[in-house]
Amino acid sequence: MSRANVTIWTPTFVSLTCIGFLTALSFSMLIPTLPRIALDELQAKPNQLGWILGLFTASVLLSRVWIDRFTRSFGSGKLLAASTAMLVAVMASYFFVTNVGLLYLVRVAHGICFGLITTSTAAMSIGLVSKERRGKAIGYYGMAQASSMAAGPVAGEALMSHSPNFLFFSLLAFVSLSWFLAVFAYKRYPRHRRTNNVAIGKSRWFERKVIPAAAQMLFLATVFGCVLSYLSVYAEMKGLGEWTGAYFLCYALSLFFIRPLSGRWADSPWVSHSVWGGLASMALSLSFLVMETDVAGFLLSGMFLGIGFGICQTALQAISLRDVQADRYTAATGTFYLSLDLGFSLGAILFGGLTATFPIPILFQWLFLAIGISGGLLMFSQRAGRRRRARPLPYEDV
Fold this sequence. Notes:
Blueprint: H1 11-28, H2 34-40, H3 49-74, H4 76-93, H5 100-127, H6 134-160, H7 164-188, H8 202-205, H9 211-237, H10 244-266, H11 271-290, H12 295-320, H13 329-354, H14 360-390
């Protein structure tokens, strides 16, 4: 049986997907609960709450940049096992946080572990499957991530209703399970030789072949981050505040169901066409959002946002890995995820700064420009690809 026909559902792939799910779950459960803990238990000031997420995000970005060098020095499996063990220690340290300064330090360590684990598991799961089934692996892995981000805040609130310590005990149990799974995956994952004799350069920190797809994803993540960050405020302005939770539910469900389908489309020769479909869906989502719409249109906006973003992320990640060598999967995945993090964070920050000058409905209309830029970059990449294929070149095994 050829490798292309072998199922992706091997024990190692399932373990890596579960590790990614549990790691993302441990992050998303703290999104709604940690600010309240900081205010009530640590007497934090409201203007200090932004640093709780800001420091976490900055450390995630830092880990994305460094991960390829760590992988080349220690190997993917060993790095994953060590990172999950560090996450267990970090999660246990939340019990001993007594002031805001210590909380900041813990959040930095948490962000580093989160970045290392999520990038490693994504790259390792992709490396386990053939090129013909890579999109399917990305789709199912993304479905697990989407599930954790949808269920995490709800689960966090439910556990927090008992006590903060009960919440942290539950999180510690989840990340401890992820460490056991990481050890299992490490024992089964192919070993790589240590490669410290790599010249330091830009190509070691980033994978240049990923940049075209990552640039497209950067603008789409900007749209995604702005909408999710300011949706509740905008909904209150429109008199739809009570439907905000339903909006996010429609978004999460559509994202969950579109991931496996988008993975199948990403494995087809028409993967670029699926990106156009995703762009159209995101534009339709914005159209429903900025129009004078009723509840049905508001919820349809959430549904089309999940469909469009799910299709685009899966397809663009598959496109980004098309010409990347196997030993650069970690760097490629880190570069792609870096564009996601930057787009989401910087978009929300810039959007927030502009709200002092422009009304939110006008700013939402400006987001069409980001979708148009992403579409323009996709068109340019398609034309460049056609010219490259038409040029007579010696055979290269990629």
